[in-house]
Write a structure and sequence with these properties.
The complex is a heterodimer of chains A (389) and B (217).
Chain A: H1 3-14, H2 16-56, E1 59-61, H3 73-81, E2 86-100, E3 105-113, H4 115-121, E4 128-131, E5 141-145, H5 146-152, E6 159-163, E7 170-178, H6 183-186, E8 189-193, H7 194-201, E9 208-213, H8 219-230, E10 235-237, H9 238-241, H10 243-281, H11 283-291, H12 296-331, E11 334-336, E12 344-346, H13 352-378, H14 382-386
Parallel strand pairs in A: 3-8, 5-7
Antiparallel strand pairs in A: 1-9, 1-10, 2-3, 2-6, 2-9, 4-7, 5-8, 6-7, 11-12
Chain B: E1 2-13, E2 16-28, E3 33-37, H1 44-51, E4 59-64, E5 67-68, H2 74-84, E6 85-88, H3 100-110, H4 117-124, H5 140-151, E7 158-162, H6 170-185, E8 189-193, H7 197-200, E9 205-210, E10 213-216
Parallel strand pairs in B: 3-8, 3-9, 6-7, 7-8
Antiparallel strand pairs in B: 1-2, 1-4, 4-5, 9-10
Helix pairs in contact in B: 3-4, 3-5, 4-5, 5-6
The chains are: A alpha+beta (389), B alpha/beta (217).
Chain lengths: 389, 217
């Protein structure tokens, strides 16, 4: 065994308590960034993921500027569905109506959807909380979001009255309660079949067409393909459509980065402090080591090896503990209720790249934190050291 | 064995020059047991530090075993100390996290040599029954014996001892000096700094130093 390794092992085993304390500090320093990154990812997915999956689609064809509908929307839809890489597409028609229950009357948006197409184009059918999802043949049936249902005090089977402008009110029955995790559909809109809404608000064409891709990351590429195939310029990617949330997500990201930064800083200080303290306490022994023939680089290696060992053990333990916590929260997700009965289910997750980035930055910090005191030790003046303390 | 030629050492305390050594010329033969004696501040420890390559001279030369050591670089001096010089310090200079056997084996491990001699060295200094004891579990005399065994680990050309009995009781002091005599009889060159006349008399030769100069050879 090399002398520096022998001495590093002996030194750490003699100072078990201090070594364990620093390892614990590094462990916490790793858990922090891992967990906040995972939580940030989970929140991002809860906000953006839900919106994209049920509301905007991966791509959305919108009316030309100045229009409020897509002309020849059926023809556009048939062109889109034939393109390889597109899982599904569905037209939606939107308008505004008044909804009246026994207790409340409010103005609200109404979405007309084609249930059979929605199964491939969105995850809307999977958001059913209770009751049944719509069928293409339904006429005066509605889906109501959890939050709105609470406001209107309605549930499956109840009747509500819809009024469009100055037309005759029509009675609808609540067929299902959905929980999409989006403000737009859970609180501020109701959903009926495409044909019903088309008739109700007297629109002949779709307000937009939502498209689901096999790979959402290819949205920019498919935007160009769709623009070319449909000759319609107003094709938006999910990133563009969720840009409003970008600021909020960016804020989460900044908070997450700040937490990570503090963790890394704590790790650096902890490791630097323990090695510096060790060196101060052992200055005479370092002098003796040099006197009996240790080169400066050997002394440097002893304390760098200690920093590296503490860093590796702390980082490994932190990663295991962090992943354990994340896994635990995936099994028992955080459920937030931002408004009335609306539910946001936050399941933290983290990518391998993020784990590697957090681990490597802490490990690097441990080495950097150990370098300064190790250099001091390596440069110790033998005579001053021997006569110190 | 050791040839010192016009050795000078000047320290600077601020702008004040302190002449610790003022042109020392000494020759020490192989197998000699030499005591460096003199009052406090005379320069005897500074001279020992120069011979032991712990410090560098301001001018003059030191040749040990045919090698001009004052021209060696930092690593060269460390390697020379490891292979050619054994140190015994005034205080008990063992590494606290190593037991007696490990302390003795350390210079051999550093030199990447087999360290099975460590046990026999502990036996040589009469402390083999304390091989697995840590320094905190040993008396001052026992610690100094372990330090002597460590100094002999790499079969050094010279054993340098800086007031090795200063912190020991009379009995332990006598045992340590007796040990030095035994080692010297076996051919070990020893240079010992002491201010105790009775210890100096045990050496083959006394070199007296005063004000940075040799006054009696």
């Amino acid at each position: 065994m090399k002398a520096w390794l022998f001495l590093a092992i002996k030194d750490m085993s003699k100072r078990k308590r201090e070594t364990l304390m620093v390892i614990l500090a590094i462990t916490i320093g790793v858990v922090g960034p891992l967990f906040t990154t995972a939580l940030n990812n989970g929140m991002q997915e809860a906000f953006v993921g839900n919106t994209v999956n049920v509301y905007t689609g991966h791509l959305q064809i919108q009316p030309n500027t100045g229009d409020n509908v897509i002309s020849k929307s059926e023809s556009v839809l048939s062109k889109v569905t034939g393109i390889k890489g597109i899982v599904g597409a569905a037209p939606r028609i939107t308008g505004g109506v008044d909804i009246e229950s026994r207790n409340e009357k409010i103005g609200i948006a109404i979405f007309g959807v084609k249930p059979s197409l929605e199964e491939k184009a969105s995850t809307l059918p999977k958001t059913l909380e209770r009751g049944e999802f719509l069928d293409d043949r339904d006429r005066y049936e509605l889906l109501v979001g959890t939050s709105l249902a609470e406001v209107m005090k309605v549930d499956v089977g109840d009747s509500v009255i819809l009024t469009y402008q100055d037309r005759e009110p029509i009675e609808f029955s609540v067929k299902g309660i959905i929980s999409t995790g989006t403000f737009e559909l859970d609180r501020y809109a109701i959903i009926a079949t495409y044909s019903t809404v088309k008739e109700l608000i007297e629109k002949n064409e779709a307000s937009n067409i939502i498209i689901r891709l096999e790979n959402p990351e290819e949205s920019a590429k498919y935007k160009l393909i769709l623009q070319k195939e449909t000759t319609l310029p107003n094709v938006k990617t999910w990133q563009e459509l969720s840009a409003g949330m970008a600021g909020m997500i960016e804020t989460f990201g900044v908070i997450s980065m700040m937490t990570s930064g503090i963790s890394v800083f704590v790790a650096a200080i902890a490791i630097s402090l323990i090695i510096y303290t060790t060196i101060r306490n052992k200055i005479r022994q370092i002098g003796v080591l040099k006197a009996i023939g240790a080169r400066g680089e050997m002394i440097l290696r002893i304390y760098l090896a200690e920093a590296l060992f503490i860093g590796i053990v702390g980082t490994s333990l932190g990663t295991i503990l962090g992943l354990f916590l994340i896994h635990g929260m995936q099994q028992n997700p955080l459920i937030m209720n931002p408004e009335y009965g609306m539910k946001l289910i936050i399941r933290p997750w983290i990518s391998m790249n993020s784990i590697l980035a957090a681990d490597l930055s802490i490990l690097l910090t441990c080495i950097i934190g150990g370098i300064y005191p190790a250099i001091i030790a390596a440069r110790t003046n033998i005579i001053k050291a021997i006569w110190s303390g | 064995m050791i040839e010192i030629d016009n050795l000078r050492k000047i320290y600077y305390m601020g702008k004040i020059e302190v002449h610790a050594l003022r042109g020392i010329d000494i020759a020490i033969d192989r197998g000699e047991f030499v005591a460096l004696m003199g009052p406090s501040g005379s320069g005897k420890s500074t001279l020992l530090n120069m011979i032991g390559l712990l410090d560098t001279p301001t001018s003059g030369g030191i040749v040990i075993d045919g090698i001009e050591v004052s021209s060696l670089d930092e690593n060269g001096r460390a390697d020379f100390r490891l292979k050619k010089i054994g140190f015994v310090f005034q205080f008990f200079s063992l590494l606290m996290e190593l037991n007696s056997l490990e302390n003795v084996a350390l210079p051999m491990i550093m030199d990447e040599r087999k360290y099975d001699r460590a046990a026999s060295l502990l036996e040589l200094v009469g402390i083999s029954d304390r091989a697995d004891h840590y320094p905190s579990e040993l008396s001052g005399g026992q610690q100094q014996r372990v330090a002597i065994a460590r100094a002999l680990a790499n079969e050094p050309a010279i054993l340098l001892a800086d007031e090795p009995t200063a912190n020991l009781d009379t009995e332990s002091s006598n045992q340590i000096v007796g040990l030095f005599r035994e080692l010297n009889k076996k051919g070990q060159t020893i240079v010992m700094v002491t201010h105790e006349p009775e210890l100096g008399e045990k050496a083959d030769r006394i070199i007296r130093i005063k004000d940075g100069k040799v006054v009696i050879r």
